Amino acid sequence: MSKKDTGIIREAFTRPNEEVDEDGKVTDEEEEPNACVVCGDLANGFHFNALTCEGCKAFFRRAIKRSTPPRCRLLGECDVNKNNRRSCQACRFHKCRAVGMRHDSKSRRHVVT
After folding, report:
1. Where in this chain does the entry annotate a coiled-coil region (predicted)?
2. Which of 6, 37, 91, 111 has a CA between 20 and 30 Å from the CA of residue 84?
3. CA distances from 54 to 14, 71, 84, 92 (A)
4. Are 36 and 45 in contact (CB under 8 A)?
5. Other CB atoms within 10 Å distance of the CB of residue 51
């Protein structure tokens, strides 16, 4: 069976949100399977009860130790993503809480393999 035939067969059995690339590999168009729920960067495990990257894990750990919460300069409407996650600490902390990060979580780390 040729690569082209294999690609056609794989294409027939893919889900609607998947595509087959030139090598015949199936790719998911939506999001990375191990994306950080806060910023979208590559996550490496469950930290503080959420699938996050090392950066958001460290940020949350430092933020919960502060005596005063950070404040947003733009009324709490900042977009938090991989490219600008360091722009507004208040909105990043709010998003951490919104996605379920908790400082009282019993299991603080679970590595994704």
Report:
1. none
2. 111
3. 32, 23, 16, 14
4. no
5. 20
Terminal CA-CA length for the chain? 33
Residues near 95 by Cβ (< 8 Å), separated by ≥ 6? 38, 80
The CA distance from 24 to 3, in Å, is: 7
Work out the burial of residue 111: count CB atoms within 10 Å of its CB; fewer than 13 is exposed, 13-18 middle, 19 or more buried: exposed
Fill in the amino acid letter for 7: G
Confidence of residue 14 (pLDDT cuts 50, 70, 90): very low
Superfamily designation of domain 45-111? Erythroid Transcription Factor GATA-1, subunit A (3.30.50.10)
pTM of this prediction? 0.65
Domain positions in the chain: 45-111
